[in-house]
Amino acid sequence: MPVNDVSTPEGKKIIQTEKRPPARILALDEWIKRYVAEHGEVYLDYFSATVDEHGWLKAELTNDGLHPNGKSYEVMAPLAEKPIQEALGHKP
């Protein structure tokens, strides 16, 4: 998943992008997609659903710029259903 730099309600800046540069996350995501395709595995794409136009985690989907919040799980839960069923050999 992408990350984002955020500010706490108290105004403290939380920088996540220095240790987790968005370009590296995107490159890893692309590698995972290729690996999954080459090995016939199931891929669950949370990245596309949670990334903003700048390549960062959408601000409304996190409280600390790294971990998903409740809104994130509302986005991710329905995405998980299809690949889980595929991995189990069921047709959704």
Entry keywords:
92 residues; mainly alpha; Rossmann fold; two-stranded antiparallel sheet; 2 strands; 43% helix
Please characterize this protein's 3D structure.
The protein is mainly alpha-helical and 92 residues long. The chain has a single domain (6-87), classed as SGNH hydrolase (Rossmann fold, 3-Layer(aba) Sandwich). Helices cover 43% and strands 4% of the residues. The protein contains 3 helices and 2 strands. The protein has helices at 22-39, 47-50, 70-87, and strands at 6-7, 13-14. The chain has a two-stranded antiparallel ribbon. The radius of gyration is 15 Å and the shape is flat. The two termini are 24 Å apart. The relative contact order is 0.18. The mean pLDDT is 91.
The appropriate CATH architecture is 3-Layer(aba) Sandwich
Number of separate domains: 1
Could you estimate the helical fraction of the residues in percent?
40-55%
Structural category is mainly alpha
User: How are the strands of the largest sheet arranged?
Assistant: 1-2
Query: Low-confidence segments, ≥5 residues, pLDDT <50?
Result: none
Span between termini: 24 Å
Could you give me the name of the CATH homologous superfamily? SGNH hydrolase
Provide the CATH top-level class: Alpha Beta
User: What is the count of DSSP helices, taking H or I runs of 4+ residues?
Assistant: 3
Number of strands: 2
Q: How much of the polypeptide forms β-strand, as a percent range?
A: under 5%
